[in-house]
TrEMBL record:
It comes from the Bacteria. Signal peptide: none annotated. Binds 2 magnesium ions per tetramer. Residues 429-504 form the B5 domain. Gene3D superfamilies: 3.30.56.10, Bira Bifunctional Protein, Domain 2 (3.30.930.10), Ferrodoxin-fold anticodon-binding domain (3.30.70.380), Nucleic acid-binding proteins (2.40.50.140), Phenylalanyl-trna Synthetase, Chain B, domain 3 (3.50.40.10). The keyword Phosphoprotein does not apply. This is Phenylalanine--tRNA ligase beta subunit.
Amino acid sequence: MRIPLSWIREYTQFPAEGTAEDLMAELVKVGLEEEDVHRPTDFLSGPIVVGEVLEKILEPQSNGKTINWCQVRVVPEGSAQTLTQEGIDPSGVQGIVCGAHNFEVGDKVVVTLPGAVLPGDFRIAARKTYGHVSAGMIASVRELGIGEDHDGILVLSTLGLDPAVGADAMELLGLYDSAAEINVTPDRGYAFSLRGVAREYSHATGTPFIDPAEQITTDDDAARPGLEVSLSDQAPIYGVDGCTRFVTRKVTGIDPEAPTPPWMASRLRLAGMRSISIAVDVSNYVMLELGQPNHCYDAAKLDGGIQVRRAAAGEKLITLDEKERSLHAEDLVIADARGAIGIAGVMGGARTEVDDTTSAVIVEAAYFDPISVSRSKRRHKLPSEASKRFERGVDPQLAPLAAQRVVDLLVQLAGGTDAAELTDAGTPVLPEPIALDPALPEKLTGVAYTQEQIQATLTAIGAEVTQSGDQLLVTPPSWRPDLSIPASLVEEIARLIGYDQIPSRLPVPPAGRGLTVSQQRRRSVYAGLAAAGFTEVLSYPFYSEAANTLFGRAEDTGEPMPMLRLANPIASQHPALRTTVLPGLLEAVRRNVSRGFTDLALFEAGLVFLPKGQLGSATIPALGAYPGEDVLADLDAGIPEQPLHIAAVVSGAEPAELPGVAGRRRDWADAVDAAEKVADLLRVQLEVTQGRHQAFHPGRTAELRLNGVRVGYAGELHPKVIEDQDLPARTSVMELDLSALIAAAPEQVSAASISTFPPTTQDVSLIVAQTLPATTLESTLAEGAGSLLEDIELFDVYSGEHIGEGKKSLAYGLRFRAKDRTLTAEEASEARASAVALAVQRHGAVQR
């Protein structure tokens, strides 16, 4: 909202020497944020005066153009020129070349003399052109930056002006005025008016406020019934009537060519609106002044009375912007006997538009439902100054006064006659009283406001305050629809008494117990992976159904995979919540590879969403009452399981390849190692066995189990998946159910005692079937060796013609140690023999 300073001074005691910055500094105190300053003198300066054309000689030119060689008086006749800038004639008569032809000898015009600066840093100086020295310029409104018309220069008589020659044209046109621009929050629509801002300035400074609405005099008793109006929104779509008040008045005998006075045009321009015609300018001026949008219809173009209703099926309307719009059944429209003539609260129709032949107008001021206006504006992508105010809520009491104000100005400025016809249809809905506990402001703000302060503040904003027992009954003013609950009244009290009165006091937190066990374990896992060279990434939990299906289950059964589908996804290609972390992690790989980073080790932890049998609940409990245990149980049953998963991906080389140094290529073993590292950090033991997963390479997939239950997979991605998803070759991943691992982790970890007895090591090499997993044989050997076995490690795998087709040789190092004595070689050999014997029994192993 832009506030011209000359305008705000009419309703407040803002100082004559005050600047826009001064005004904004005061308004900030009551919560209106400063935005910008609009000052014409920032781009317009110098000697700009009223001149009178004394002589005009037409001179055709060789280029086909005809120019006017003019003599223009720029000081009063008989007076001496006091300006001494280079190029200014001391006689007070300037010779000026002008290419426009819309003026005659005797006309008074705006002359920019040498030394003046026009918008665009256009500097005026005496210069030779078309065979003359032109010392100045006769200006158009566009050259002055006060309009778009460039067809001719500005003749002051067209504005109804006859100023003295030599007068300051900038003062005449209001160009010394300036405007402060403020940001208005959605809950304070009343501040989209000079009336509202002036009231806020009064609150900020404690100075008197003149309400412009109270300066308007209406004589409703003397008026006869006017245009017939019916409000037909009998089945309101949004729970309230679309229009609760519709006021019309009529003005006849308007001079459609009457000029808009410069003071009004200047204020409109500073407020961000261009001057169009007297009727339109008056309508906009009243809207800015009072905050009540209004509209003028050409009375001769109306067919019958007016009906406010919802749009009919297939109904169309050409709006004032000359676009045909197909109306929706929810659109509230204003219509006459021939159909819609405007979208209520948004924009009028072209058929009843006021034009340069209009001599009688119907003035409309109404109250429209904010929700209806807001949805129509968005539906038709048609923002307007009217809708900006209606969708925030206008004063329902203001419509008759605004209509009267438009009538008064049209009578005063356009020569019209008040037809004394009035229609006031509907009943305005006024605010209900709010019960306010006088102790509530202190509870919410920490400031001990007295009851006198509370009552005085609420009265100052226009509310009526009465005592009702130990409560205050507060009836908000009609222009404050945002005041609807006690907390909103407390906000007003705090705002107007001053936010600076609220102490900056941090609450004392209760004594904490540190991180929970689960939090500590999660942090140790993340820190451990980071220390191992992995980088953590975060991705959105929204996936395609195909990605969830591919990575979220081991086999494609052909049945739809259970997943949560969003009713309003942020992207149509990602309509479901994730059931696995891998797709988002692989997207991070693709993004890094596309930017040249190919040697990657990334991890991500996040919740996944695994629907159970029930999704959601059949009903949503009502507000304001405890729903009951059965309803809560139903709601809880509809919430999907949300375990925490952790996934990692590796690709490229480690360390990175350098000139002369070949890095080791990362593979599936790195993915398995990352999973085992997570288990080690949590002090749990993973069982790594050969597995199968549709997204993984069939021969390089490890199934990860914990206490016999599968908790994840690790290995190399399937070559087709790598190709389809544009990933680096040999990309390997792992994913674990971190929640399950954390739950299984021991609560306390005791460090193992260091034995003082020496170990005994022995090796064993066994030939087994090619299909037998090494981990299975390792578990068998450990079981057979018994309690003396301290560690077992695979150190060699061999397959070839020497051991037979379909066979492989696995070599393990066994380390034995006793807790209470030094082992003999015979004891170690006996334990080794037991381990081999069990392997022979279970797997048909043959010792090499």
